[in-house]
Structures are given as structure tokens and as C-alpha cells.
Design a protein that fits this description.
binds S-adenosyl-L-homocysteine; 7-stranded mixed β-sheet; alpha/beta
């Protein structure tokens, strides 16, 4: 998602410390404290303009959501959605997903969402894909033992790569589909901005759910 720099984005974010975590390193290990409850913590890496994280937060008030994006302007649009929704169970974090272990303690996260992650189509950039084995190793650290990663995309080469990397990383698939909206998993699906756009174009949406191989953790 490329968006033009938004004037005043930084100030907008700084003005809402209840929603935007301005000192992410200090939050490590303290997320339940920050939310003020012991509810599960679900994060989305690359949350874009926030339709998914806000929709999920409204649908599930007993779950704490954290939307993470590396781009300041994009995150400021997500903040608009959070403010408009009135949801109190969402926080936003402007950090790079490759450094998640700096902001979350081992096992602190219950569920992770990756939606329409950047494809990085060149082979030499494969490590930058949020579903490369390098990333699964990071998710392994921050997710609790029963944690799941749920990934959606319309990009079939990226999806095929991701299915393969799940295995390479020693994780297991709970399920996957090449056409989410016409599958048994369609119910309750919250659409992202990209999902709306690509679905309107007629692209089928792929989705996988993965967890750690329990044998490996023994
Ligand atoms: N999930 C949204 C946006 C998809 S575009 C949707 O489905 O509509 C991918 C988003 O990931 C962009 O907003 C981009 O800024 C963000 N992103 C890319 N690499 C990232 C990284 N390493 N860490 C955090 N966010 C990242």
C-alpha cells in the first residue's frame, strides 16, 4: 500500500496516546496492563488503513487488538477508523514487523493476522516476505503455544510460497483455501481494504491458518 504522505499524520498519532503506542519498547511484556484487562491479544502486522482490525475489534469486544504498520501516514488513517468506531479494545503501533520480538515478550500474543502482505516478487527479496521462514521464527517467539497465524492474500504465487514456508519452518496447517469467500470459512470473515478491492475485481482470496508442530516444542 503506497499512500501519499499525510500532512499532520505524526501529530495526529501523538495526540491519541490512548490508542497509539508511542514508546513501543516500553510496552514489551506489558500489553495486558496497557489494555487494562487479561483478554487475549491478537495482532495484525501490516494493518494498512485499519478496516480489518477495527471491524474485528467491534465484532469481538473481549479480545484486545493491535494494528501494526510501518508507515506513519497509513497508520494515521487507521487511527481515524478506530476513533470513528469508538472501539476501546484496539491499539496501534508504528513499527517494523521484522523487529516484533523487541515489542512483545515470548508467548505474549494469542493470535496473529497477516492480510495482503507485500509480495516482494523478486527471489532475492524473499526474506522480506512476512510469510518467509525468517518471519515464522519470529512469530514462534511471540506467540503462545496454542497461537495461530492467519494469512489472507489474493496473490497466488505469494500464497504458494507461504504454504511451502510453513512446512520449511516446521509449522503445521490447520486448514487452507484458495477461495475463502466460497469456502466453509467464509462466515464471519471481516474484509480488509485490499480484500474489498480485489474481490470487486473478481480475484479469489486465499487463506491459511497455521500453528506450531507440537512435537517440536517437546
Ligand atoms: N492489511 C491491509 C494492507 C495491506 S498492504 C489490507 O489488507 O488492506 C501491506 C501493508 O503492510 C502496508 O500498509 C505496509 O505499510 C505494511 N507493511 C509492509 N511491510 C511491513 C513491515 N515489515 N512491518 C509492518 N508493516 C509492514
Amino acid at each position: 500500500m503506497r499512500v501519499r504522505k499525510r500532512k499532520g499524520a505524526e501529530e495526529h498519532l501523538a495526540n491519541h496516546p490512548q490508542y497509539v503506542i508511542l514508546e513501543p519498547e516500553a510496552a514489551k511484556g506489558k500489553w495486558h496492563e496497557l489494555f487494562g484487562n487479561d483478554n487475549p491479544i491478537h495482532i495484525e502486522v501490516g494493518s494498512g488503513k485499519g478496516a480489518f482490525i477495527t471491524g474485528m475489534a467491534q465484532q469481538n469486544p473481549d479480545i484486545n487488538y493491535i494494528g501494526i504498520d510501518i508507515q506513519l501516514s497509513v497508520l494515521s488513517y487507521a487511527l481515524d477508523k478506530v476513533l470513528a468506531s469508538g472501539a476501546e479494545n484496539v491499539k496501534l503501533l508504528r513499527v517494523d514487523g521484522s523487529a516484533l520480538t523487541n515489542y512483545f515478550e515470548d508467548g505474549e500474543v494469542d493470535m496473529m493476522y497477516l492480510n495482503f502482505s507485500d509480495p516482494w516478487p523478486k527471489d532475492r527479496h524473499a526474506k522480506r516476505r512476512l510469510t518467509s521462514k525468517e518471519y515464522w521464527a519470529r512469530y514462534d517467539r511471540i506467540l503462545c503455544p496454542e497461537g495461530r497465524v492467519i494469512f489472507k492474500t489474493d496473490n497466488r504465487p505469494l500464497f504458494d510460497f507461504s504454504l511451502e514456508q510453513v512446512e520449511v519452518a516446521g509449522w503445521e496447517l490447520d486448514n487452507y483455501t484458495f477461495d475463502l469467500h466460497h469456502s466453509e470459512y467464509a462466515e464471519g470473515n471481516v474484509m480488509t481494504e485490499y480484500e474489498e478491492r480485489f474481490t470487486a475485481k473478481g480475484n479469489p482470496i486465499c487463506r491459511l491458518v497455521a500453528h506450531r508442530d507440537p512435537q517440536k516444542n517437546k
